[in-house]
Amino acid sequence: MSASDRARTWALGIWSAAALLFLFIPVFLIALFSFNDNRGRFNFTWQGFTLEHWKHPFADPDLTKALENSLLIAAITTVVAVLLGTLLAVALTRYRFRGQGAAGFFVFLPMATPEVVLGASLLAMFLVMGIDTGFWTIAIAHVMFTVSYVVVTVRARLEGMDPYIEEAAQDLGAGVWTAFWKVTLPMIAPGVVAAGVLAAAISIDDYVVTSFNAGQTQTFPLYIFGSTRQGVPPEVNVLGTMLLLAVLVLMGLNLLAQKALARRDRGRAEEPPAIPAAGPSAVTG
Amino acid sequence: MGLTLSQRRRLVPWMFAIPGLLWLILFFAIPLANQAQVSLLSGDPEAGYTLTWAFDTYTHAIADYKEQFLRSFLYAGAATAIDLVIAFPLAYFMAYKAGRWRNLMLLLVVLPFFMSYVLRTVAWQLILADNGWVVERLRDVGLVSEGGRVLATGPAVVAGIAYNFLPFMVLPLYVALERIDRRFVEAATDLYASHATAFRKVTLPLAIPGIFAGSLLVFIPACGDFINAALLGTSRQYMIGNVVQSKFLNVLDYPTAAALSFILMTVILIGIVIYSRLLGTRNLTEAAT
């Protein structure tokens, strides 16, 4: 590696570190200010360290209710969107049918539509139909705009798969659902899990679409936005940080599980084959 | 049940597709169609609205909110450009130089997503506060005048948008760069192209799908965003999203809000087509996935 190459790599590395730092500065600040012994309504200046807010993160019943709603809506959204999106992705990649191109484009459209438009349109329809907005309309809206992300994520996984594998299962007597359940699904499982994480993350964090379809129901982001005028209470920082930590722990567990699975697979591959392998390798080996 | 095997096989993909498609038809397509109709109503919140095919709502909406439209595209465009500049070297480093740090870096890019978006934007209020460290330093070097502020200005809103959507630029760029066969670049340098030429003639053209996808993923949500303008700006920095939201939820002027939504969507779709022609991307959906 020449000197100029090394200088280039260093420059890129420093730039990358700075960019990552930029991404994390607000995150650090939020975590830091969850320990702030703030007086008055605003939590904007550092006034000393305290664990008080961490001891009573659920002190505010409105905030707790809002977080509860967010978690519940995210759970419902994830299950429904993953179910609908995975089936849709399978249809769009594993089969050929008339109108497939149009269906694919239609599924892509919600991602190309700004969230204000999605939220406002849905609210207009609920108003026309005389449906009261609230918990369930938020969940409906979240499923609607996360399905496309699920489709994209699962599709990416499906595209690398052997195109004849379901046919093989069906030729061996499996029904369509058995083939899907026993062959397709286990193969795309990591993609489905990733899609679920994505759907949950988008749902739990959404403000724009939710603000249109929430009615009197509060969610975590709505509560935070609403409290900006009177000052965001430090309990919000605590709960936000807790959510982030929970995600980190889940990611860590997932990593450990994957490592364990990989080790098991490797263990199996190293087991001596039941039938002695004959052929050139046996001869040379 | 009276169906031949081939008929049943033809129904299979529909069985898989219909639940999802139905959801999108009910809660995406029909609301949009309804919204088109709403935009042509006239009347007022007290007396109610009737369909009068009032196309002049559109011309009035454009005339009244030209400024917010232009500002939305300007802010979103500026944020997209900033993100491209920040993200490209980062994605390049992750794809070719990071080695065993690559997965950790990917994790770090995604992780801020799991801290609430609104909360992160509130944190920017704190960072850019008038007596905060950042603004003091900017005053020291003369970028901000004595007594001048950063919060409640256009640059603050652009910074907030650029910050919030940066990961959407990094990920597609990384995927596109990672996919490039490095032997093409080696071939170019073997044939005496300088590093700069090899980058310009080989790496950059092959990274175009990533640039396209990343730009869309930043620009589209940025155009409709109203959180950054609401928290980091004032009504003088309001974007079209702020107008739609207030028309819909506060003023209850549904036709104008609907017309504004459609104008925004149309401009964005036209913009996507032009941009894809400029970059020579053949398939929109292909680039987006």
Note the topology:
The complex is a heterodimer of chains A (285) and B (289).
Chain A: H1 3-33, H2 52-55, H3 61-94, H4 100-112, H5 115-128, H6 135-158, H7 165-171, H8 176-205, H9 208-213, H10 220-227, H11 234-270, H12 280-284
Chain B: H1 5-38, E1 41-44, E2 48-51, H2 56-97, H3 102-110, H4 117-127, H5 133-140, H6 154-179, H7 182-190, H8 195-206, H9 208-224, H10 227-232, H11 240-251, H12 254-279, H13 284-288
Antiparallel strand pairs in B: 1-2
Helix pairs in contact in B: 2-6, 2-9, 2-12, 6-9, 7-8, 9-12, 11-12
Binned strand content of chain B: under 5%
* The CATH top-level class label of chain B: Mainly Alpha
Number of strands of chain A: 0
CATH topology name of chain B, in short, is MetI-like fold
Q: If you average the pLDDT of chain A, what whole number results?
A: 86
CATH topology descriptor of the domain at 61-232 in chain A:
MetI-like fold
| Broad CATH class of the domain at 61-232 in chain A | Mainly Alpha
- Show unreliable segments of chain A: 273-285
- Provide the residue-averaged pLDDT of chain B: 88
- Look at the structure and name the CATH superfamily of the domain at 61-232 in chain A: MetI-like
N-end to C-end Cα span of chain B: 39 Å
Which term fits the overall shape of chain B? globular
| Topology order of chain A in helix (H) and strand (E) letters | HHHHHHHHHHHH
Q: Could you say which structural class the secondary elements and strand pairing of chain B correspond to?
A: mainly alpha
Structural class label of chain A: mainly alpha
- Residue share in helix of chain A: over 70%
Helical stretch count of chain A? Answer: 12
Count of spatially separate domains of chain B: 1
How is this structure best summarized?
The complex is a heterodimer of chains A (285) and B (289). Chain A has 285 residues and is an all-alpha fold.
Describe this structure in words.
The complex is a heterodimer of chains A (285) and B (289). Chain A is mostly helical and 285 residues long. Chain A has a domain at 61-232: MetI-like fold (Orthogonal Bundle), CATH 1.10.3720.10. In chain A, 75% of the residues lie in helices and 0% in strands. Chain A has helices at 3-33, 52-55, 61-94, 100-112, 115-128, 135-158, 165-171, 176-205, 208-213, 220-227, 234-270, 280-284. The two termini of chain A are 39 Å apart. In chain A, 39% of the residues are buried. Chain B is mostly helical and 289 residues long. Chain B has one domain (64-288): MetI-like (MetI-like fold, Orthogonal Bundle). Helix content of chain B is 75%, strand content 3%. Chain B contains 13 helices and two strands; from the N terminus they run αββαααααααααααα. Chain B has a two-stranded antiparallel ribbon with strand order 1-2. In chain B, a hairpin with a 3-residue loop joins strand 1 and strand 2 (48-51). In chain B, helix 7 (182-190) runs antiparallel to helix 8 (195-206). The radius of gyration of chain B is 24 Å and the shape is globular. The two termini of chain B are 39 Å apart. Mean pLDDT of chain B is 88; it is low at 283-289. Classes of the chains: A mainly alpha (285), B mainly alpha (289).
